[in-house]
Specification:
The complex is a heterotetramer, with 2 copies of chain A, 1 copy of chain B and 1 copy of chain C.
Chain A lengths: L1 H33 L6 H26 L7 H16 L7 H25 L4 H20 L9 H8 L1 E2 L2 E2 H19 L1 H11 L1 H6 L4 H27 L10 H11 L11 H20 L4 H25 L1
Antiparallel strand pairs in A: 1-2
Helix pairs in contact in A: 1-12, 1-13, 2-7, 2-10, 2-11, 2-12, 3-4, 3-5, 3-10, 4-5, 4-6, 4-10, 6-10, 7-8, 8-10, 11-12, 12-13
Chain B lengths: L1 E7 L2 E7 L8 E6 L5 H8 L7 E6 L2 E3 L4 H6 L2 E4 L11 H5 L13 H14 L15 H14 L4 E5 L7 H16 L3 E5 L3 H7 L2 E6 L2 E7 L5 H9 L17 E10 L3 E9 L3 E6 L5 H9 L6 E6 L2 E3 L4 H6 L2 E4 L3 H5 L6 H6 L7 E2 L2 E2 L1 H15 L15 H13 L5 E5 L7 H16 L3 E5 L3 H7 L2 E6 L2 E7 L5 H8 L4
Parallel strand pairs in B: 3-8, 3-9, 6-7, 7-8, 13-20, 13-21, 16-19, 19-20
Antiparallel strand pairs in B: 1-2, 1-4, 4-5, 9-10, 11-12, 11-14, 14-15, 17-18, 21-22
Chain C lengths: L1 H17 L2 E6 L5 H17 L2 E6 L4 H13 L4 E5 L7 H9 L4 E5 L9 E4 L2 H16 L3 E7 L5 H16 L3 E8 L4 H14 L5 E4 L2 H13 L6 E5 L2 H8 L5 E4 L2 H16 L7 E3 L3 E3 L4 H8 L1
Parallel strand pairs in C: 1-2, 1-3, 3-4, 4-5, 5-11, 6-7, 6-8, 8-9, 9-10
Antiparallel strand pairs in C: 10-12
Helix pairs in contact in C: 2-10, 3-4, 5-6, 7-8, 9-11
Classes of the chains: A mainly alpha, B alpha/beta, C alpha/beta.
The structure holds adenosine-5'-triphosphate (ATP) (2 copies) and magnesium ion (2 copies).
The site of one magnesium ion (MG) has 5 residues of chain B, from helix 9.
Subcellular location (chains A, D): Cell membrane
Pfam families (chains A, D): BPD_transp_2
Membrane topology (chains A, D): Multi-pass membrane protein
């Protein structure tokens, strides 16, 4: 009897703490049962590669969300940085791939820095500042290419998004690498503490001698930088610079972060949650496509899955 | 500090303040709510910028613009209103901004170890790994104290450090202060508790309405003179307890239980009675009242109101049964900080103040005006945001909002926390008037003199269990203390 | 339970072995034109007794690439590609080619020499046709406004190019303003309302699709004016509008024809028969005189 | 001298309090100077008619934002309610216009209520719940029409969006009517007070006897209802039910509310700010079209205007 009770409590606390993981597992089991080919190494790698771009954006978004901010411009930054990287990476320009990568990263970092300055030093609400940037960065991207695709990219550049190291597609390796770095940054460094503190209670953080403005500014730079990286990978994957690319990606990135249990009001969050968040999105998209669900039903089912996955997280609170 | 002036939005709150702290002494800063004590200290701590005046530390002029500068100059402050970072652990909060570690990286082991030692040396029983959000107000305050002390500062400002803790912790704090004094530190101590002041202060400075009044040696002044200089009028009696007829039963709680919080609590409150509940921090008093008011679900428990059993499932039900609850944490549970003073006062009374759906603004204004005057709430207008009021005035707003509900039972959870002596006396008088009309009060207080001064009977809780009930003749500090630790 | 799952997958495999399975990704399934194309392809597939899975690319080339990857790992025998972007969807073709799966492009060309075959038309032609129609209507002289598709989409780029080709020949036609309305009727309406406020001298409206042209016409009618407009696609509403003299003409694109033809061509390719490189299905002008015929075809 | 100072303070406080109004005026003056036809009664009515849909959504969003929530589903609800109204309003069905209007409103109210229940009673974060609804409602809309337009609507129905009463287009009249109702609701009724209290401090509100869950649920119903109304007007305006309509409108609605000075963290806001917010958006779109600015530049300029208008609001705070 006693044991039983203990176990029950154990399960309950587990669901309360790791509800989204349970959600992910349920979704995966469902797809596996429905479609045998879903749970194969090949398809899992395929799914991970597809999700790597949203993954990078969601990681950057996690930093932003932890400070209580939001970054609506990530999709546009993906577009801008991808376009500028493509312009450099064209075979006719003859630059090495890493220079193009660098250009993409710098464009992302720069646009992110502009966001950061406007938000932290000019005190414009993050929603407005990044919404403005969403529009501005897209406008710049169109101008840079006159809205036309930029094809003919160098081989080296194309392997960033298309290549593999042994078994593993490079985008997945990049994602894992970024995850490790960001995990260390958030949990093992002073900077990470300051990010949490800034989001948790900016006044207390300021009183403790933390440069709250600088921290706030920096998270948008991180988000911009990772968007830049995502832009380069995306461009490389689609083999040409596209003015429209990244359009609307911000929604998925924010969704991944929030599904993972990061509170949009800041201070409360977890990087592993974000990972589960973007995995849920990735599995969902891949699985529904594999099952060949009609596109209208996909919309309905996706909505239900997103809500359902999070509900597991909150169900326990209700009982309290 | 000399000639300090400060105004907010062209309202002068400090005017020519002089203040001098000596090494190795405790200097008490006194004054009514809104006198400007916290503001003065926040200038010292670099949170506000002064408009005029000079600050000298150890004979040299200093310029303090940011909290960091202030810290570097050896100033640490325990804030009255600042809350910690709720999602972080105790250790992380204490070492925020100066985490131990190499280069960019943190050394958690070191941090937790240091915190453990620190808390142990201060006799604070809180786990370094506990998340702040899960701590009770009292423990949060203890952590704030630990944090300020750990800064190893030359000057420590304590802005009402004992507002949330009970006598045991207070005496512990005083030991620490004595120790700091011995090490030549200077301490600025703000409190509204008179006995504390006379127990530890060497010097006392009084402010009134943002103006400097005077500085005395503590031994040269008695309580009445001090109060008079603060309040500007004679205050004969602090506890104006009036004996009113105590008649039939008003409220009975039967077998109140919530696992892990409190167990098998029974008591009766009579009409005309002030029923005190005493106990140590974490005894479960607040939780018990949450249960009564319908804020938390009970495991078992019956409420009998004037002989009839009533069901209270939500605060709405409680209010409908004319129970009112002045919560212990005014910022978290009492006020809507972004709303005006007036709107906060009338919030629970909206139904009464509306015709159909519409708010009767004229009526509303009259009631607000009455309350502002009755409780002497100090604010620039009823439309001022309540977050801009001083702590004491905020508390009065919470009181006001319940008094206009004309409840039959008023639950007061630490009702005078952070309130100045003048206002305290007013609140006590209001309490007497209230029960005089045949109503009842349940009062929780960690200030022993207050419960003993005001209550007709006292229930002592210890670790969630009732250790017994005392009638007025049986009240002694020792008695209550002994019962408080009975079940620990 | 594990065994059951395996069993199920086995039966599924044998099923698919016997039956040819093809996948089709469309740049979107959220507009009438592509839905018509998809429906025709589905009808054809059923008729030919093959399995067809339709994917919605959501206006995003990388989604389409992902879908092609999914189709490959799902064991499709052939793929029909209706790309969002001519350049960016090239990797779809490469991936399929690497996996030895034939790809037939439909409706919008994709820039890859590995494409097995292409069924469709050239959007540049549509632009040229509609612009020429307006030029003829205005006798080579007048002021026009252009409502464009989403900037950067292949159809927008190519139709705009076609429009420009004609404009270059008629210097007396002046473009007063041009703006994207993202293929949307309500956006087209809003833009037109604003232009009507700004300019008194608009002689014609060139829409890069029917929806936007119809939106513009609503704005024009509401303003009590009668400025001719033209669009591309020949959707049901446009056919009705042409019949009612609400649109000058629409450049009909035979989506249904393209869809069914693509399935046929792909099946031939899967079966190892030689297929041509291009199957042109030309744009046709729908005007008052021939609209009846098109309405019947659209059924 | 003395007077001078006083006046200066006056101007400063005015900008601090009413910065967005100053922003709106600057934008309007700019367009008037650049394009004489901008500031005509006719064009102003035109602009107001266009903005009435975003206006309705922004008003609903204000209620939601005041409670600290967000409603991403308004655009999809516009689509769904417009589509169902259109299905009823077809001439061949032969129903009177007000029945179609009712259907539209009910669909909006229903979907809003689903949002509300999921958020307040099942405790799913508003971002996730309404993101799910965004997807679900759009899926339903596509299913209802198979992505085909639904034309041939009855005359009575078409006059909802297209008609005028005397000089005034009906959508503008509806907007004004709704504004008055909502103003009274927010500022003159007890319900309005509860909305502010719920957003400002839900715990205090609960202690004060307010049914916080019900209030939270209700604001999503209001937002849904107004989205339903907007959907009917839009459908009537474009003369047919379109499955895609309303797509992305949520961004403009939230932007209008935030530009107006409503804090996304709740409790702090103002309805007049929202009005200025959607007017800024409306004037901006109309003015840039009138000036025939190129599509690319429009994006850049819009971004700058959005940020700039809000910056006036926050500039003063910086000095403090
Ligand atoms: N940020 C602010 N903006 C405007 N007015 C303020 C601000 N902070 C404090 N005040 C006002 O300044 C006055 C002094 O406040 P302060 O908090 O210093 O009082 P106090 O002496 O600490 O009172 P208490 O004993 O209640 O804590 C009050 O009237 C208060 O309303
Ligand atoms: N937010 C919380 N989370 C977890 N446990 C809590 C919380 N608040 C209180 N507790 C626990 O409930 C018990 C009773 O706390 P309660 O606040 O009722 O005590 P109290 O007697 O009112 O003390 P105080 O004088 O500090 O208000 C404590 O032992 C504490 O550990
Ligand atoms: Mg104070
Ligand atoms: Mg308590």
């Amino acid at each position: 009897m006693e044991k039983d009770k203990e176990q029950k409590i154990g399960v309950k606390t587990f669901i309360a703490k790791y509800g989204v993981i349970v959600g992910l597992v349920i979704i995966m089991v469902f797809f596996t049962v429905m479609k045998a080919k879903f749970l194969t190494v090949e398809n899992m790698l395929n799914m991970l590669r597809q999700t790597s771009i949203n993954g990078l954006l969601a990681i950057g978004m996690t930093f932003v969300v932890l400070t209580g901010g939001i970054d609506l411009s990530v999709g546009s930054i993906v577009g801008a940085s991808g376009m500028f990287a493509a312009l450099v990476a064209r075979t006719e320009v003859g630059m090495p791939w890493y220079l193009a990568l660098l250009v993409g990263l710098l464009v992302g970092l720069l646009l992110g820095a502009v966001n950061g300055v406007i938000i932290s030093y000019l005190r414009v609400p993050a929603f407005i500042a990044t919404l403005g940037m969403l529009s501005i960065a897209r406008g710049i991207t169109f101008m840079a290419s006159d809205a036309k695709p930029v094809p003919g990219l160098s081989k080296g550049f194309l392997s960033i998004g298309g290549g593999s190291v042994g078994f593993f597609p490079i985008p997945i390796l990049i994602l894992i690498f970024v995850l490790i770095i960001c995990y260390i940054t958030l949990y093992k460094t002073r900077y990470g503490r300051y990010v949490f503190a800034t989001g948790g209670n900016p006044t207390s953080a300021r009183v403790s001698g933390i440069n709250v403005k600088l921290i706030t500014c920096s998270v948008y730079m991180i988000s911009g930088l990772l968007s830049g990286l995502a832009g380069v990978i995306l461009t490389s994957r689609v083999t040409s610079g596209l003015a429209q690319s990244g359009n609307g990606y911000e929604v998925d990135a924010i969704a991944a972060a929030v599904i993972g249990g990061n509170s949009l009001s800041g201070g409360r969050g977890r990087l592993w949650g974000t990972i589960i968040g973007f995995l849920i999105m990735g599995v969902m998209n891949n699985g529904l496509d594999m099952m060949a669900v009609s596109s209208y039903w996909q919309l309905v089912i996706k909505g239900i899955i997103i809500i359902g996955a999070v509900m597991l997280d909150s169900l326990n609170e209700i009982k309290e | 500090m000399q000639g300090i002036e400060k105004s907010f939005n062209s309202v002068q709150v400090l005017q020519g303040i002089n203040f001098c702290l000596e090494q190795g002494s405790v200097h008490a800063l006194m004054g009514e709510n809104g006198a400007g004590k916290s503001t003065l200290m926040k200038i010292l701590a670099g949170i506000y910028k002064k408009d005029k005046g000079t600050i000298k530390i150890k004979e040299s002029n200093v310029d303090i613009n940011t909290p960091k500068q202030s810290q570097e100059l050896g100033v640490a402050m325990i804030h009255q209103e600042l809350s910690p970072i709720p999602e972080m652990t105790v250790a992380e909060n204490i070492y925020l901004g100066r985490e131990p570690g190499k280069g960019l990286f943190l050394d958690y082991k070191e941090m937790y170890q240091q915190t453990e030692e620190l808390l142990k040396s201060l006799k604070i029983q809180v786990s370094p790994r506990a998340v702040m959000r899960n701590l009770k107000v009292a423990d949060q305050q203890l952590v704030e104290i630990a944090k300020a002390i750990s800064l190893n500062a030359e000057i420590i400002v304590m802005d009402e450090p004992t507002s949330a803790i009970t006598d045991k912790e207070v005496s512990n704090l005083f030991e620490i202060i004595e120790d700091l004094k011995k090490h030549g530190k200077g301490i600025i101590y703000i409190s509204h508790k008179m006995d504390e002041i006379f127990q530890i202060a060497d010097d006392i400075t009084v402010l009134r309405d943002g103006v400097y009044v005077n500085t005395w040696k503590a031994k040269d002044i008695n309580q009445n003179t001090l109060i008079k200089s603060m309040v500007g009028r004679e205050l004969t009696e602090i506890y104006p307890k009036e004996i009113v007829p105590i008649t039939e039963d008003m409220l009975e709680l039967q077998n109140f239980t919530k696992k892990g919080k409190f167990e098998g609590i029974n008591f009766k409150v009579k009409k005309g009675e002030i029923y005190g509940i005493a106990g140590l921090v974490g005894a479960g008093r607040t939780e018990l009242m949450h249960g009564l008011f319908g804020l938390d679900k009970l495991d078992t428990g019956k409420v009998i109101l004037e002989g009839k059993e009533v069901e209270i499932k939500s605060p709405k039900d409680a209010i409908a049964n004319r129970i009112a609850y002045v919560t212990e944490d005014r910022k978290l549970e009492g006020l809507v900080l972004e709303m005006s003073v007036g709107q906060n006062i009338t919030l629970p009374s909206m139904k009464k103040l509306s015709k159909g759906l519409f708010v009767q603004e004229k009526e509303e204004r009259t009631i607000i005006k009455e309350q502002r005057e009755a409780l002497r709430i100090k604010c620039s207008s009823e439309r001022q945001l309540v977050k801009l009021l001083s702590g004491g005035n905020q508390q009065k707003v919470v009181l006001a909002k319940w008094l206009i509900k004309s409840p039959k039972i008023l639950i007061l959870d630490e009702p005078t926390r952070g309130i100045d002596v003048g206002a305290k006396a007013e609140i006590y008088k209001l309490m007497c008037e209230f029960v005089g009309k045949g109503n009842s009060i349940i009062m929780i207080s960690s200030e022993m003199p207050e419960v003993m001064g005001m209550a007709d009977r006292i229930l002592v809780l210890s670790n969630g269990k009732a250790s017994g009930e005392l009638s007025r003749e049986e009240f002694t500090q020792e008695h209550i203390m002994k019962m408080s630790v009975e079940h620990i | 339970a594990d065994k059951d799952a395996k069993k199920e997958s086995n039966t599924e495999d044998t099923q698919t072995e016997g039956k040819v399975k093809i996948g089709m990704t469309l740049y979107s399934l959220k507009n009438e034109f592509t839905v018509r194309l998809a429906n025709a392809a589905e009808a054809k597939a059923e008729e030919l007794g093959i399995e067809l899975v339709v994917y919605d690319g959501n206006y995003d080339p990388s989604t389409q690439i992902s879908q092609v990857e999914t189709m490959i790992s799902d064991g499709c025998d052939g793929i029909i590609l209706n790309p969002q972007d001519a350049e960016a969807c090239a990797p779809c073709v490469d991936k399929a080619a690497d996996a030895g799966i034939p790809v037939v492009g439909v409706n919008t060309r994709v820039k890859s020499d590995k494409l097995t075959s292409y069924v469709g038309s050239i959007d540049v032609t549509a632009g040229e046709m509609e612009m020429q129609k307006i030029v003829d209507l205005l006798d080579g002289k007048g002021n026009i406004v252009i409502i464009e598709g989403p900037m950067g989409q292949s159809a927008q780029i190519e139709r705009r190019e076609g429009i420009q080709n004609i404009l270059d020949k008629y210097p007396d036609i002046k473009v007063l303003a041009e703006k994207t309305a993202n293929w949307s009727r309500s956006e087209g309406m809003t833009v037109m309302e604003n232009w009507l406020q700004a300019f008194d001298n608009i002689d014609a409206v060139v829409g890069e699709n029917d929806e936007m042209a119809l939106g513009a016409r609503e704005a024009i009618k509401a303003a009590g004016k009668d400025i001719p407009a033209i669009g591309v696609d020949g959707i049901t509403d446009a056919l009705n509008a042409v019949e009612e003299d609400n649109l000058v003409a629409s450049i009909f694109q035979d989506g249904a024809g393209q869809g069914s033809k693509a399935v046929e061509v792909l099946l031939d390719a899967i079966n190892g028969e030689t297929v041509e490189e291009n199957y042109w299905i030309d744009f046709e002008e729908v005007n008052k005189d021939n609209v009846e015929e098109f309405k019947q075809r659209a059924q």
